[in-house]
Each structure stands twice: as C-alpha cells, then as structure tokens.
Predict the structure.
Amino acid sequence: MRMTTLCYIERDNKYLMLHRVKKENDINKEKWIGVGGHFEEEESPEECLLREVREECGLTLTGYKFRGIVTFIADNYETEYMCLYTADKYTGSITECDEGILEWVDKDKLETLELWEGDKIFLRLIAKDVPFFSLKLRYEGDALKEAVLNGEPV
C-alpha cells in the first residue's frame, strides 16, 4: 500500500500541470497530472503536500484545501491512497522539475490533455466544488474499469 498527495495549484483560471515525460519506468509516463508525491516516514498529509510541491515545482503553498481521498486499485500496481488538494495561494517561483515539464493550463482545456480517465472524474468534482469526497478507481492496465464515489457507482 502506498500513500501519496496530489495538488492542483490554481492561478488565473489555470492549473499548474506536470507533463510526466522525464522518468523511465513511470506509471504516469506521458500523462498530465498535478504535483505531489509519496509520503515519507512520519509525515502528515499536509507535510507531504508542502514538501512535495516545494520539491517538484519550487513553490511554497500558503493557502490550500483538502478536497478528497482517492483510492487507486490496479492489476499491475500496488493499491494507492491519494490525498487530493487544490491550492490558490503560494510564494516563490516555479523551478524546473526532474519528473517532467510544468505548464499552466486553462481549466477548460484540461480534458484535451492525456489524462487518466479517473483524473477526469475528480477534476470534474473539484470544478463543481463538491464537498470532501472519497473516490475509488479500479484499473486494468490503463483502462478504468470501476469508479465509486462516496460508496456509489459512478
């Protein structure tokens, strides 16, 4: 089991997106995702979020919101529990990321990117300002086979 954070940082109706093109053997290879990563020993979700955002893009978050928890189940990958955040306040300047290319993308253009199908579901929930949610996503390879929102099939 793995624990991770993922954050969509907002500015001018855009999200800071990471195009994962730099790492070999990356489950997210060629996909566009927010910024975040794996928990370190004894970290809280907020500590992981702040550290990972700082490491991946150089920004220090000063205003963020915990939006939900996403459970990823895959036939070829261990189960992952992801704490999902959005942020709209930060300090610092964007730095180069060793995992991919960072780019501000208009929110209304997100679905034109190469996204995981499950990411489209939680990005729509965020766009609708749905209160804190639990989303379970089951994949076979790259194909989304099941999505369950707050215990109900989607």
Summary: Residues 45-57 form the longest helix (13 residues). The longest strand covers residues 60-74.
